[in-house]
Predict the structure.
Amino acid sequence: MKKIMLAILALGLIFTISGCAKRRIDVEETGSKGYQGTSWKMFCDGPNAVIWVPGYSGEDDELEAYVYEHWQCAPKFYADGIPPAMTTEDPAKGDPDGIIEDDEE
């Protein structure tokens, strides 16, 4: 039993020391573009944007945000302007008492 535990510990140590868990994002492969005046970079993952910061001195690259339906990555989504779900129009507008009711008739 002691040999098995030592083998598991040794394997874990090997993976930790070898850097197998390092997260590196290839700028050219992903097509990442920089944000002017910041260290942020962005690439499109389908219609979604991944915003990240490159690591320095051997550190992992840091994922900062994942933005769904980003305007640069999903231009067809925004072809007719702002989608209805993103408008700031008051849904109670036009309702006589100004109260939104969920009455099902």
